[in-house]
Amino acid sequence: MDETRRLIRVRTRHNKPAFKRRGLHRKSRLADVWRRPRGLQNKQRAQFKAKGALPRPGYGSPAAVRGMHPSGYAEVRVFTPADLVDLNPETQAVRIAGSVGNRKRGVIQERALELGLKVLNAKDLTPAAEVPAAAEEEVNENE
């Protein structure tokens, strides 16, 4: 486990360049997504130092921790409570899908707690506190 933590730290070091699309600062309509420079006169394609780095295989994270959550768990996306069966609480953590509603989310969170699984995007699903009596009196007086 110590080796895994070390590799995660290595992965999160800030020695990687921010791969920016050429001309991104000039046009607001250009999306901030990487596009390979292909023009013949393009300085970035020719790898001029000041024009930004190109993604290369050497910038990748260690294979042992690639795709792993920063907490050290492997993420597993869950849609139903049945998906929690056969998960290992020591190596895997649960991320509840965004399309899951609050009712099913509550069931999944409770079941994960029983099984000892960590939920990465847990929500507090307790109902909102009731309106204080003083506020109700003000509403009644205004009517």
Care to describe what's here?
It is built from three helices and three strands; from the N terminus they run αββαβα. The chain is α/β, with parallel strands linked by helices and 143 residues long. The chain has a three-stranded parallel β-sheet, with helices on one face. It starts with a helix and ends with a helix.
Question: Secondary-structure map with pairings?
Answer:
Blueprint: H1 2-11, E1 74-78, E2 92-96, H2 102-115, E3 118-119, H3 133-142
Parallel strand pairs: 1-2, 2-3
**Largest β-sheet summary:** 3 strands, parallel
Helix content: 10-25%
Looking across the biggest beta sheet, what order are the strands in?
A: 1-2-3
How large is the radius of gyration? 24 Å
| Topology as a string of helices (H) and strands (E) | HEEHEH
The beta-strand count equals 3
Class from secondary-structure proportions: alpha/beta
Dominant shape = flat
Q: What's the average pLDDT? A: 88
Uncertain stretches: none
Report the total helices: 3
Termini distance? 64 Å
Approximate strand percentage: 5-15%
